From TrEMBL:
One of its GO terms (molecular function) is chloride channel activity. It is found in: Cell membrane; Membrane. InterPro entries: Bestrophin, Bestrophin-like. This is Bestrophin homolog. Its main location: membrane. The keyword Mitochondrion does not apply. It comes from the Eukaryota.
Length: 146
């Protein structure tokens, strides 16, 4: 979703204006991640409360050993490798989609080669066809992005 903040940014004055822009709700990243963050914080506090108030000394030692065991195996698969692989796949998919976009250049070359003439009706026909193709592309892209 595209949200236009140009008017808000241009007349932003005073103390705290950056934070007002950062925490705008429409189109915000916080709008997307708040449920996950809330569940994460809830589970963290539940685990913390169980560890502090629900376990005896032996169970706490067992929990600490389990956390050290998990920390040891956490480094076996490097996160940077997995993240690099993921980014590579995402960029490859994006590039394939970019290459599938039907740009109007090929159609313009076809019109130029098949509709001969320098002035008059052939030139008017070529320019009209290319205007329609550009209008179609603009309508298509606005439909896709909205």
């Amino acid at each position: 979703m595209t949200v236009n903040y140009t008017q808000k940014v241009s007349d932003c004055k005073g103390f705290g204006s950056f934070w007002r822009l950062l925490f705008r709700w429409r189109g915000s990243v916080y709008k997307l991640i708040w449920p996950d963050s809330l569940v994460y914080c809830f589970l963290y506090f539940v685990c913390s409360m169980v560890y502090r108030f629900g376990l005896d000394e032996q169970q706490r030692r067992t929990f600490e050993q389990l956390s050290l065991y998990c920390d040891y195996f956490r480094n076996l698969i490097p996160i940077s490798f997995v993240l690099g692989f993921y980014v590579s796949v995402v960029v490859q998919r994006w590039w394939e989609q970019y290459l599938c976009i039907p740009w109007p250049d090929y159609f313009a070359l076809l019109c130029t080669s098949h509709i001969r003439g320098v002035d008059g009706p052939p030139k008017l026909l070529r320019s009209t066809l290319l205007r329609y193709v550009n209008l179609t592309m603009a309508m298509l892209f606005s439909r896709i992005s909205g």
